[in-house]
Design a protein that fits this description.
Length: 656
């Protein structure tokens, strides 16, 4: 009879689970509901198995001791995160694709030719950002539309630019109720001037609609019960996590999971939510609810809940119909997410909240509770994972009273089940370490916003996410880095002390050292990556959708065939020629004609140049770059390129 070590026996459930997952998952499409449901059930069962074991076998005895405080409080964080995860698994067990519905109804809505008002809400965005959006709205293949630029910055120069482009510039005397108030003011103005439309399309100042944004979105309004159609947000520039880790072309932006996988799943349950920009709402539905609600800084989610109370559905069309500018600075990135969190907590307290006495479907209450649980548990738990091992290394406190073979038997199957399911439905988007970095970097501010919003929901100002600006220099965000650097050094110090001596630990605590050791090493990887993210690299590329095209370049009495590597409204990058800085060129770009350029930098066989576009060429370039079909950016994980990008970034960070 064979005698295997305890840890080998403990691996049996994980090996079985991994074998079944790797054998079965490739056989089915992620949109095959029975397969999704089965894998969700597996993930839920192993999650409940793990949390039951944690509650009954691993906690320190109850009493007035540091062990009790540390062990039980960490379990509270972990259990909350698991409950939130189970709710997410249930939602993700379904999926809905509305593209066939849009195909079937497109001709019907086109024949009706309803009036559409396009609202572009702006506060302090620079002209190049706004110009893109206005040009994209003008390029929409839909005739019966009027474009309104809602300027809460009351900028005279913007009014002149709007008149030049043939769109309506709207201002108001104050900034009451922020974005929602800005939109409501425009709605009231249209009513007063009898310019009521059938539908209102809402775009943020930095989001460019594709040509078919209106025709595809309007098709779903053939169903009179639909009050709002939301489309996904895609980004043509990398977010700070992608850019600062050097993985822009190998790892998707942080919001891809929500828009590509969570929203279609929520739509299948009838709980898709409005996300503000890139949405279209029925005018009569706004009349019924009294326009945009203003009691939350996330007026979009609250709009969905308010529409539901009046029997109007929010539906989701998962097609890339617009593209925008992701926050480029780390502070702006975190501010945006903290605002979303705060707004959700305000909705919890509103008349559309889960405990409201108003007529609200149970699934709508669940929707808000699920979102609240995500903000309230995910980010505090991420912080706890970094902090609690320190109690063991420095004070000998018991965080988890378990031996290695027990952790392998209970935790590893739970973790594998979760990863297998999430990566099945998202086609491999959940990458350990990188996913943790993206959550940890803003965990402190988001956790603070969650608690503040829950305890004191009123009296918080709307914080605008800054976009654009000069990002051409390396910037170290010391105020953010400091906390992660301190945690890294404390973790490294605690590990060194703990490995060198056992003088703080009793025998039982020492048995769990191997568990804490692995945990600590993993934390060091995550913290090191988070520190790197806080070093903001210069941004030179403009558009992530990089399809090099052949161009003809003329200058200095010569002609070259070159590759157009990158282009924006101000500059161009050409590969395949070498000319000194200051050379006057003309670049023949398809769809634009001849573009005047002056070279600014020569690096090998690659040239950067400033370009000088006519007004017509500027509009044509926006259409070329941002309004055509297809998703910009990176939509899937490229594992080898991801590893190579991280390695290059680590080496560069070490050198600097």
């Amino acid at each position: 009879m064979l005698n295997f070590p305890d840890w080998v026996v403990a691996l049996a459930p994980s090996i079985l689970l991994l074998g079944i997952g790797l054998a079965v998952a490739p056989m089915f499409s992620r949109n095959f509901i029975p397969a999704r449901t089965a894998m969700a059930l597996v993930a839920i069962v192993f999650s409940l198995r793990y949390v039951t074991w944690r509650a009954t076998e691993t906690l320190a005895p109850w009493g007035w001791s540091l062990d009790t405080l540390v062990s039980w409080s960490f379990f509270a964080f972990e259990a909350g995160s698991i409950v939130s995860g189970v709710s997410a698994f249930i939602i993700l067990s379904r999926y809905r694709n509305r593209s066939p519905e849009a195909d079937a109804a497109a001709a019907v809505m086109a024949a009706r030719n309803p009036r559409v008002a396009i609202f572009i809400a702006t506060y302090n965005e620079e002209w190049p950002v706004l110009e893109r959006t206005i040009a994209g709205a003008l390029a929409c293949d839909y005739p019966n539309k009027t474009i309104y630029v809602l300027d809460d910055g009351r900028r005279g120069w913007l009014g002149e630019r709007c008149r030049d482009m043939g769109v309506v510039h709207v201002t108001r005397p104050d900034n009451r109720d922020s974005k929602a108030g800005n939109i409501n003011h425009a709605l009231a103005l249209l009513r007063a001037h009898r310019r009521v439309s059938d539908f209102v399309a809402v775009l943020d100042a930095d989001f460019v609609p594709h040509r078919d944004f209106l025709t595809r979105g309007l098709a779903l309004f053939a169903d009179p019960a639909v009050g709002l159609v939301q489309t996904p947000q895609h980004f043509f520039n990398p977010d700070p996590i992608q850019h600062n880790l050097g993985i822009s072309r190998s790892y998707p932006d942080e919001q891809r999971f929500f828009f590509d996988y969570m929203q279609p799943a929520r739509d299948a349950w009838g709980i898709a939510v409005c996300c503000g920009t890139s949405s279209i709402v029925r005018w009569s539905a706004l009349e019924a609810i009294g326009d945009f609600p203003t009691s939350s800084v996330t007026e979009d989610y609250l709009l969905t809940a308010t529409l539901a109370m009046h029997d109007y559905a929010t539906v989701y069309l998962n097609e890339p119909l617009s593209e925008g500018l992701a926050p480029e600075g780390l502070k702006e990135y975190i501010t945006q997410r903290a605002r979303w969190c705060l707004g959700l907590m305000q909705i919890v307290h509103s008349e559309a909240g889960p405990m409201s006495r108003r007529r609200l479907r149970w699934r709508d209450r669940w929707s808000i509770l699920d979102s609240a649980a995500y903000w309230l548990t995910t980010f505090p738990f991420k912080l706890a994972c970094m902090i609690y091992p320190l109690f063991y290394w420095y004070f000998g406190a018991i965080v988890m009273d378990a031996q290695l073979n027990e952790v392998i038997f209970y935790f590893v199957p739970y973790y594998l089940g979760t990863m297998l399911f999430l990566n099945f439905v998202s086609v491999g988007m959940f990458v350990p370490v990188v996913n943790d970095i993206s959550q940890l970097v803003g965990a402190w501010e988001i956790s603070r916003a969650a608690i503040t919003g829950l305890v004191r929901p009123r009296g918080h100002a709307f914080k605008v996410t800054m976009k654009g600006g000069d990002r051409g220099t390396l910037t170290v965000q010391w105020s953010l880095m400091r906390r992660f650097l301190v945690l890294f050094l404390l973790t490294l110090g605690g590990l060194s002390v703990g490995l060198a001596s056992d003088y703080l630990f009793d025998a039982r605590a020492a048995e769990g050292k191997s568990v804490i050791l692995f945990w600590t090493l993993y934390n060091l990887l995550v913290l090191a990556g988070t520190v790197l993210v806080c070093v903001e690299l210069p941004r030179t590329a403009s558009v992530l959708r990089s399809h090099p095209e052949r161009v003809v370049v003329r200058g200095a009495g010569r002609e070259w065939n070159a590759w157009l590597e990158d282009i924006n409204l101000e500059a161009v990058r050409l590969r395949g020629l070498s000319v000194p800085a200051g050379t006057q060129l003309e670049v023949a770009v398809a769809g634009l004609g001849g573009v005047s350029a002056t070279t600014t930098l020569l690096l090998g066989a690659t040239v950067d140049a400033d370009i000088f576009l006519t007004n017509q060429q500027r509009e044509l370039l926006v259409e070329k770059l941002h309004t055509r079909a297809g998703a910009p950016g990176t939509t899937g994980v490229a594992a080898i390129a991801l590893g190579a990008g991280l390695l290059r970034r680590i080496i560069a960070g070490t050198v600097h």
